[in-house]
Amino acid sequence: MNFHQEPNTFVGQVNLKVQSLERSLAFYQEVIGFKVLKQSSTSAELTADGKTTLLTIEQPEQVVSKQPRTTGLYHFALLLPDRSDLANIVRHFVELDIQIGAADHLVSEALYLSDPDGNGIEIYTDRNPGVWDWNNGIVAMTTDPLDFPELMTNETGKWSGLPAGTIMGHIHLHVADLAKAEQFYTKGLGFEVVNRFGPQALFISTGKYHHHIGLNTWAGVGAPTPPANSTGLESYAIVFPTEAERQRIIAQLKEIGEAVQEEKGHFVTMDPSGNRIQLQV
């Protein structure tokens, strides 16, 4: 099953603020393997398939580096089509001497690194959903060591950039209050909780995916929102299957007291921790 198309609701695009467009473009093309779809003097749209924007980077005026222990991006996660792609990019990172983290989450195998501004990036492949362990609506996930020797038996050749089938698999956010975030994302946006990591993190999805969005208070309960000209998350897009579903969710958000505004042809809302969300179809 494809968890990132109708009838599911999912994350489609992430928009970042960076200190140097030139530096970030070099990183995202040469290290991660994006292609540039559009570019101006202060921003760029990045793609894997040459058609679909997955990531935008923008250099704001008077940009400042992000302060620690604030809300915003923990990481965005690029989902590769095959394990061989994950093995190939491991070799690519080794050849570039890029420091990475890694984990086996039972549902997926993941690599972790940061861009030059400290924005977190996960690159992963899913295990077959048939082996995911569900119990009373909760999917089993953990953080075990990744078996690199076994993974590398899937290596098929030199890394040549992100495969065309790469998508934005999920986003993971720092929030100030987990209970308020849960209410907003479940009662407002209509996601379901599929895993809890103690009192500090939860994972939500539609269509029984292991998670489209992760939420945590690891930056501190009550963490402040970063300044508007800070590097980090500008916004991210949630994609609804139909216009009718988007309108239903907009009405639902308003019912629980959340604001939805129209900006430059986009419907935009903000979670209780100040994370901006575009509501797309």
Automatic annotation (TrEMBL):
Stretches of the chain forming a coiled coil according to its record: none
Superkingdom in the source lineage: Bacteria
The keyword Cell inner membrane is annotated on this UniProt entry: no
Keywords from the named record: Metal-binding
InterPro entries for this protein: Glyas_Bleomycin-R_OHBP_Dase, Glyas_Fos-R_dOase_dom, Glyoxalase_1_CS, VOC_core
GO molecular function ontology, one term from the record: metal ion binding
Pfam families, per database record: Glyoxalase (PF00903)
VOC domain span: 10-126, 167-281
Gene3D superfamilies xrefs: 2,3-Dihydroxybiphenyl 1,2-Dioxygenase, domain 1
PROSITE patterns, per the entry: GLYOXALASE_I_1 (PS00934), VOC (PS51819)
Protein's name according to its UniProt entry: VOC family protein
Naturally occurring in which organism (per UniProt): Paenibacillus agilis
